[in-house]
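Re: weekly structure request thread

Next one in the queue (182 aa):
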Amino acid sequence: MALAILHHLRRINRAIALIVGAALMLCAGYVVADIVLRRAGMPLRGGEDIAGYAMAIATSWGMAYALLELGHVRIDIMRSRLVGRLRAMLDLVALLALAGTVSMIALRAWPVLERSIQMGSRSNSALQTPLAWVQAPWFAGWVWFALVAWLTFLCALWLVLMRDDKAAEAAIGMSREAEVHS
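Done, posted below.
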């Protein structure tokens, strides 16, 4: 069951990554068009704003993808010297710390969005973008990351308790490339 949950989370995150990637490509196209048209004296305006918004949203949503693809950077001096159950326990501690940290970020992001909604805040740029439009998907990305981190932790904990260290390693260990370089 834990492996099935992780598999479904990976599928969902891959779909999200494709959507976010397409949005970033559109954003890059807009910025390029803005630069080209600026030289022609007809700027589109707002390219900097849109790029910043896109990066914030892409980052919050991309974190869950990176987690399940074992793409987060870790400094694992101790981990590389451990084997089996001890290594799995250290991985669980790292994931627990990550899940707790991202949960705090998500909790702290809500008042930012709430205040923007209540005050009708807008960007102080030429676009005058309602900030809630940008902050809502940004906040949702952090909440999704927290949810994925906790579900991944619970699945990995289950795998460790069931003594399936190989599956736990595949779920929350390091990517093969990272292990080669450590």
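The chain has a mean pLDDT of 89. The CA atoms of residues 10 and 170 lie 13 Å apart.
Next request, please.
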